[in-house]
Design a protein that fits this description.
The protein is an alpha+beta fold. 43% of the residues lie in helices and 22% in strands. Strands 1, 2, 3, 4, 5 and 6 form a six-stranded mixed β-sheet that branches. The longest helix has 36 residues. The C terminus is likely disordered. The structure holds adenosine-5'-diphosphate.
């Protein structure tokens, strides 16, 4: 009996040891799954999520506790749309992963994804390609935009210079003046493109210096309006509507001026049939609202978020013949963000656009300075 009992105990010990090893191996496998950079997801035969590793959480933003135990089609937005296209091999081994976009609550992630089927379900592994795609798209946009935008002024400068050089043509004073004007103006445009490119890259790298201090946005807006009026197309009326005094904001004056100037330049540029462009300033809670509105082409709702992206243009093929680098609004947004403000747009195609910048006041608690003259404080056209 003793021998039998010993044998039974030995058997139990072996069984426990085996169970322990199995558990240990499973725990180790789970740890490995949690540390690898690829998203790994296990769906059972009914399509219910059984495993969701840390990388899957990080890539999709969906937490394991919210998705495990739920059908993938319900728990992962956009899964139903891509699932039929995901390549699934019937045995482990190299499967050509395919890249496809997964729509997650309005945000799109580009995944390189493949699956392996086994008897209890399917394991999917995926990698996030979003950053690479964004970089690749940016590179393409940069080359297309810069080469196009540089070529137009360069051609004008080159053509004017060649005409001035021709020994067989002696241009009169007027023509000479006009050609020199073209050269000066187009060189200015080239310099502006290069400056915008540099500033955008400094903003990206975090090396653009911003020196916020108390400044008078009304003064800056007035300067922008006065300067823009010197070369305004005839069909455009540009006006400033602001109280005589507005509370000071905390911003970098040079950069705030650039933001307002960019918005005014766009309002004029995207109003090819003319109209009224208005810059208005108005205190609102603890901030100052600077709005630039036009009656121009307007922007479809689907594009209103994207126009603030670097190099993004609604009409990249220039069907309306209006050029640009797609950097202006990106620069505006970044500069405004740096001083704690925000920028947004309201627009409807064919009905014009209003871009609004909201900047925190320099001293949010303080009352607006008393206006010097009677009647001030009301918006007055300037
Ligand atoms: P750019 O004007 O150089 O193309 P921006 O970054 O300033 O670049 O603007 C991005 C895009 O947003 C423009 O290409 C244009 O399609 C759209 N946009 C900007 N401002 C306006 C406006 N006031 N009215 C209509 N569309 C605009």
């Amino acid at each position: 009996r003793v021998v039998t009992e010993l044998a039974r105990r030995a058997g139990l010990a072996v069984e426990n040891a085996l169970l322990f090893r199995e558990a240990e191996e499973r725990a180790q496998a789970a740890r490995v799954l949690q540390t690898i950079a690829d998203g790994v997801v296990l769906l059972d035969r009914d399509g219910v999520i059984r495993l969701w590793n840390a990388a899957a959480e990080a890539i999709t933003g969906l937490r394991g506790e919210d998705v495990v135990g739920h059908p993938a089609e319900e728990a992962i937005p956009g899964w139903a749309a891509i699932a039929p296209r995901v390549p699934v091999a019937s045995a482990p081994g190299p499967t050509a992963a395919e890249s496809m976009p997964l729509e997650l609550h309005g945000a799109e992630r580009w995944l390189s994804i493949a699956g392996v089927g086994f008897e209890d379900g399917t394991v999917f592994a995926f990698r996030d390609l979003t950053e690479e795609r964004v970089l690749e798209e940016l590179r393409r946009d940069l080359v297309a935009t810069v080469s196009h935008e540089l070529r137009t002024p360069l051609a004008a400068i080159y053509g004017s210079a060649l005409t001035l050089q021709r020994p067989d043509v002696s241009p009169d004073e007027t023509l000479r003046g006009q050609l020199l004007d073209v050269i000066a103006e187009e060189s200015g445009r080239l310099a502006q493109i290069v400056n915008d490119l540099l500033l955008a890259s400094q903003l990206d790298a975090g090396t653009a210096g911003t020196t916020p201090r108390h400044c008078d946005a009304r003064d800056l807006a007035q300067q922008v309006v006065t300067s823009a009026r010197t070369h305004l197309p005839e069909r455009i009326a540009l006006e400033l509507a602001a109280p005589q005094t507005v509370p000071q904001v905390r911003a970098d004056p040079g950069q705030l001026r650039q933001v307002i100037a960019n918005l005014v330049e766009n309002a004029v540029k995207y109003s090819p049939d003319g109209g009224r462009v208005q810059v208005s300033l108005e205190p609102f809670d603890a901030s100052l609202r600077i709005a630039v509105s036009d009656q121009g082409l307007g922007i479809p709702a689907s594009e209103q978020r994207r126009i603030f992206e670097k190099f993004y243009r609604v009409d990249p093929n220039m069907e309306r013949g209006i050029g640009g680098t797609g950097l202006g609004l990106y620069i505006c947004r970044e500069l405004v963000r740096r001083v704690g403000g925000r920028i947004h747009v309201e627009s409807a195609p064919g009905r014009g656009s209003t871009f609004t910048v909201e900047l925190p006041l320099a001293s949010p608690g303080s009352k607006q300075r008393k206006p010097a003259s009677a009647g001030a404080g009301r918006p007055t056209p300037a």
